[in-house]
Write a structure and sequence with these properties.
By secondary structure, the chain is α+β, with helices and mostly antiparallel strands. The protein is built from eight helices and five strands, in the order E-E-H-E-H-E-E-H-H-H-H-H-H. The two termini are 18 Å apart.
Length: 238
Protein backbone atom coordinates (compact mmCIF):
# COMPACT_ATOMS: atom_id res chain seq x y z
CA UNK A 1 0.00 0.00 0.00
CA UNK A 2 1.08 3.57 -0.67
CA UNK A 3 -0.64 5.68 1.96
CA UNK A 4 -0.73 9.46 1.86
CA UNK A 5 -2.71 11.87 3.96
CA UNK A 6 -3.98 15.00 2.23
CA UNK A 7 -5.87 18.00 3.49
CA UNK A 8 -5.65 20.78 5.99
CA UNK A 9 -6.14 18.69 9.12
CA UNK A 10 -3.62 16.42 10.84
CA UNK A 11 -3.97 12.66 10.60
CA UNK A 12 -6.18 11.14 13.30
CA UNK A 13 -5.16 7.69 14.49
CA UNK A 14 -7.47 5.00 13.15
CA UNK A 15 -8.16 3.39 16.52
CA UNK A 16 -7.82 4.11 20.20
CA UNK A 17 -4.68 2.63 21.73
CA UNK A 18 -6.84 0.60 24.12
CA UNK A 19 -10.37 -0.82 23.76
CA UNK A 20 -11.67 1.87 26.11
CA UNK A 21 -10.61 5.48 26.23
CA UNK A 22 -8.31 6.48 29.05
CA UNK A 23 -9.97 7.91 32.14
CA UNK A 24 -11.34 11.33 31.44
CA UNK A 25 -10.66 11.09 27.67
CA UNK A 26 -13.65 11.69 25.43
CA UNK A 27 -14.16 9.52 22.32
CA UNK A 28 -13.19 11.23 19.08
CA UNK A 29 -15.93 12.55 16.87
CA UNK A 30 -16.37 10.45 13.75
CA UNK A 31 -16.42 13.71 11.78
CA UNK A 32 -12.72 14.19 12.63
CA UNK A 33 -11.62 10.82 11.26
CA UNK A 34 -10.30 11.28 7.70
CA UNK A 35 -12.01 9.12 5.07
CA UNK A 36 -9.91 6.47 3.36
CA UNK A 37 -9.90 6.42 -0.44
CA UNK A 38 -8.61 3.21 -2.05
CA UNK A 39 -7.57 3.13 -5.70
CA UNK A 40 -4.79 2.04 -8.02
CA UNK A 41 -1.58 4.13 -8.24
CA UNK A 42 -2.97 6.47 -10.89
CA UNK A 43 -5.58 9.16 -11.52
CA UNK A 44 -8.31 7.15 -13.22
CA UNK A 45 -11.76 7.04 -11.65
CA UNK A 46 -10.49 8.25 -8.28
CA UNK A 47 -9.13 11.58 -9.49
CA UNK A 48 -12.44 13.51 -9.49
CA UNK A 49 -12.85 12.38 -5.87
CA UNK A 50 -9.37 13.65 -5.01
CA UNK A 51 -10.17 16.93 -6.76
CA UNK A 52 -13.33 17.30 -4.67
CA UNK A 53 -11.41 16.63 -1.46
CA UNK A 54 -8.80 19.18 -2.56
CA UNK A 55 -11.36 21.85 -3.43
CA UNK A 56 -13.02 21.44 -0.02
CA UNK A 57 -9.73 21.31 1.90
CA UNK A 58 -10.80 18.05 3.50
CA UNK A 59 -8.25 15.63 4.91
CA UNK A 60 -8.32 12.04 3.67
CA UNK A 61 -6.06 9.02 3.34
CA UNK A 62 -5.06 8.43 -0.28
CA UNK A 63 -4.36 4.70 -0.26
CA UNK A 64 -2.96 3.45 -3.57
CA UNK A 65 -2.91 -0.29 -4.15
CA UNK A 66 -1.40 -2.20 -7.04
CA UNK A 67 -3.41 -5.32 -6.20
CA UNK A 68 -6.95 -5.38 -4.81
CA UNK A 69 -6.86 -9.05 -3.79
CA UNK A 70 -6.57 -8.25 -0.09
CA UNK A 71 -9.45 -5.80 -0.26
CA UNK A 72 -11.60 -8.32 -2.12
CA UNK A 73 -10.86 -11.03 0.44
CA UNK A 74 -11.81 -8.65 3.23
CA UNK A 75 -15.33 -8.48 1.81
CA UNK A 76 -15.24 -4.68 1.73
CA UNK A 77 -15.75 -4.20 -2.01
CA UNK A 78 -19.42 -4.59 -2.95
CA UNK A 79 -18.60 -5.21 -6.61
CA UNK A 80 -14.96 -6.24 -6.30
CA UNK A 81 -13.86 -2.86 -7.69
CA UNK A 82 -12.15 0.35 -6.69
CA UNK A 83 -12.38 3.26 -6.07
CA UNK A 84 -13.67 2.50 -2.62
CA UNK A 85 -14.37 5.07 0.10
CA UNK A 86 -14.35 4.11 3.76
CA UNK A 87 -15.68 6.46 6.44
CA UNK A 88 -16.93 5.95 10.01
CA UNK A 89 -20.52 6.47 8.82
CA UNK A 90 -20.63 4.76 5.43
CA UNK A 91 -18.49 2.82 2.98
CA UNK A 92 -19.08 3.14 -0.75
CA UNK A 93 -17.82 1.93 -4.08
CA UNK A 94 -18.71 3.27 -7.56
CA UNK A 95 -17.10 6.60 -8.35
CA UNK A 96 -20.30 8.52 -9.11
CA UNK A 97 -21.96 7.34 -5.88
CA UNK A 98 -18.90 8.43 -3.90
CA UNK A 99 -18.76 11.81 -5.63
CA UNK A 100 -22.48 12.47 -5.21
CA UNK A 101 -22.31 11.59 -1.51
CA UNK A 102 -19.34 13.90 -0.89
CA UNK A 103 -20.85 16.64 -3.06
CA UNK A 104 -23.98 16.60 -0.91
CA UNK A 105 -21.83 16.85 2.20
CA UNK A 106 -19.98 19.88 0.88
CA UNK A 107 -22.77 21.80 -0.90
CA UNK A 108 -21.46 20.92 -4.37
CA UNK A 109 -24.49 18.96 -5.58
CA UNK A 110 -26.65 21.87 -6.76
CA UNK A 111 -28.86 24.14 -4.72
CA UNK A 112 -32.21 22.71 -5.91
CA UNK A 113 -33.52 19.34 -7.09
CA UNK A 114 -33.42 20.75 -10.61
CA UNK A 115 -29.76 21.71 -10.32
CA UNK A 116 -28.96 18.31 -8.81
CA UNK A 117 -30.58 16.64 -11.83
CA UNK A 118 -28.60 18.85 -14.21
CA UNK A 119 -25.39 17.84 -12.41
CA UNK A 120 -26.32 14.20 -12.96
CA UNK A 121 -26.99 14.91 -16.64
CA UNK A 122 -23.53 16.43 -17.14
CA UNK A 123 -21.80 13.63 -15.26
CA UNK A 124 -23.69 10.94 -17.18
CA UNK A 125 -22.58 12.62 -20.39
CA UNK A 126 -18.96 12.36 -19.30
CA UNK A 127 -19.51 8.71 -18.40
CA UNK A 128 -20.82 8.08 -21.92
CA UNK A 129 -17.90 9.66 -23.73
CA UNK A 130 -15.35 8.23 -21.30
CA UNK A 131 -16.74 4.75 -21.94
CA UNK A 132 -16.05 5.20 -25.65
CA UNK A 133 -12.49 6.27 -24.89
CA UNK A 134 -11.92 3.28 -22.63
CA UNK A 135 -13.20 0.97 -25.35
CA UNK A 136 -10.59 2.42 -27.72
CA UNK A 137 -7.79 2.18 -25.15
CA UNK A 138 -8.57 -1.46 -24.41
CA UNK A 139 -9.20 -2.56 -27.99
CA UNK A 140 -7.09 -5.48 -29.28
CA UNK A 141 -3.48 -4.45 -29.81
CA UNK A 142 -3.81 -4.52 -33.60
CA UNK A 143 -6.73 -2.06 -33.43
CA UNK A 144 -5.89 0.12 -30.41
CA UNK A 145 -3.91 2.87 -32.14
CA UNK A 146 -6.42 3.26 -34.97
CA UNK A 147 -9.44 3.28 -32.64
CA UNK A 148 -7.81 5.75 -30.25
CA UNK A 149 -6.90 8.06 -33.13
CA UNK A 150 -10.45 7.82 -34.44
CA UNK A 151 -11.85 8.68 -31.02
CA UNK A 152 -9.80 11.87 -30.74
CA UNK A 153 -10.40 12.82 -34.38
CA UNK A 154 -14.17 12.26 -34.39
CA UNK A 155 -15.84 11.38 -31.08
CA UNK A 156 -13.87 13.73 -28.81
CA UNK A 157 -14.58 16.95 -30.74
CA UNK A 158 -18.22 15.92 -31.18
CA UNK A 159 -18.65 15.64 -27.42
CA UNK A 160 -16.61 18.77 -26.70
CA UNK A 161 -19.12 20.61 -28.87
CA UNK A 162 -21.94 19.27 -26.68
CA UNK A 163 -20.24 20.47 -23.50
CA UNK A 164 -19.28 23.81 -25.07
CA UNK A 165 -22.94 24.42 -25.91
CA UNK A 166 -24.12 23.48 -22.41
CA UNK A 167 -21.51 25.68 -20.77
CA UNK A 168 -22.48 28.67 -22.92
CA UNK A 169 -26.17 27.98 -22.28
CA UNK A 170 -25.55 28.37 -18.54
CA UNK A 171 -23.59 31.60 -18.96
CA UNK A 172 -24.38 34.41 -16.53
CA UNK A 173 -24.76 37.80 -18.25
CA UNK A 174 -23.18 36.29 -21.32
CA UNK A 175 -20.08 35.09 -19.47
CA UNK A 176 -19.59 31.29 -19.19
CA UNK A 177 -18.82 30.20 -15.65
CA UNK A 178 -19.98 26.79 -14.49
CA UNK A 179 -22.06 24.00 -15.98
CA UNK A 180 -24.87 24.20 -13.43
CA UNK A 181 -26.05 27.26 -11.56
CA UNK A 182 -23.80 30.12 -10.48
CA UNK A 183 -21.31 28.22 -8.32
CA UNK A 184 -18.98 25.23 -8.60
CA UNK A 185 -20.55 21.76 -8.48
CA UNK A 186 -19.21 18.24 -8.65
CA UNK A 187 -20.22 18.20 -12.32
CA UNK A 188 -17.60 20.87 -13.02
CA UNK A 189 -14.92 18.77 -11.37
CA UNK A 190 -15.90 15.70 -13.40
CA UNK A 191 -15.76 17.62 -16.68
CA UNK A 192 -12.46 19.24 -15.70
CA UNK A 193 -10.96 15.86 -14.87
CA UNK A 194 -11.99 14.44 -18.25
CA UNK A 195 -10.38 17.38 -20.06
CA UNK A 196 -7.31 17.06 -17.85
CA UNK A 197 -6.99 13.36 -18.69
CA UNK A 198 -7.21 14.16 -22.39
CA UNK A 199 -4.45 16.74 -21.89
CA UNK A 200 -2.34 14.02 -20.26
CA UNK A 201 -2.54 12.12 -23.55
CA UNK A 202 -1.58 15.20 -25.56
CA UNK A 203 -5.07 16.42 -26.49
CA UNK A 204 -5.58 19.91 -25.09
CA UNK A 205 -8.87 21.70 -25.61
CA UNK A 206 -8.60 23.73 -28.84
CA UNK A 207 -9.37 27.28 -27.69
CA UNK A 208 -10.10 28.39 -31.24
CA UNK A 209 -12.89 25.81 -31.57
CA UNK A 210 -14.05 25.58 -27.96
CA UNK A 211 -13.26 28.92 -26.29
CA UNK A 212 -15.73 28.51 -23.43
CA UNK A 213 -14.35 25.08 -22.52
CA UNK A 214 -10.76 26.28 -22.74
CA UNK A 215 -11.58 29.16 -20.41
CA UNK A 216 -13.44 26.81 -18.07
CA UNK A 217 -10.45 24.45 -17.88
CA UNK A 218 -8.13 27.34 -16.99
CA UNK A 219 -10.49 28.69 -14.31
CA UNK A 220 -10.82 25.34 -12.55
CA UNK A 221 -7.10 24.53 -12.85
CA UNK A 222 -6.19 27.85 -11.20
CA UNK A 223 -8.58 27.65 -8.26
CA UNK A 224 -6.17 27.80 -5.29
CA UNK A 225 -6.89 24.39 -3.75
CA UNK A 226 -7.13 22.64 -7.13
CA UNK A 227 -3.88 24.22 -8.30
CA UNK A 228 -2.16 23.18 -5.07
CA UNK A 229 -3.31 19.58 -5.54
CA UNK A 230 -2.22 19.47 -9.18
CA UNK A 231 1.21 20.76 -8.17
CA UNK A 232 1.77 18.09 -5.53
CA UNK A 233 -0.10 15.05 -6.81
CA UNK A 234 2.02 12.03 -7.79
CA UNK A 235 3.06 11.90 -11.43
CA UNK A 236 1.45 8.79 -12.95
CA UNK A 237 0.97 7.44 -16.48
CA UNK A 238 -2.82 7.39 -16.19
Amino acid sequence: YQRRVHGVFPLIEKKMSTPAAAAGERPRSTSLVPPKLYYFPGRGLAEPIRLLFAECGRAYEDIRVSDTTELERSGKLPFGQVPYLETPLISLSQSSAILRYLANQHSLAGRTPQEAALCDEIVDGIVDVRTRLVMAFFAPAAEKDAKTAQFFAETYPEWLAHFERLLVKNAIAGVPGFFVGETLTWADLVVFNFLDHAKLTGHDVDATKFPALAGFYHRIATRPNIAAWIARRPVTPF
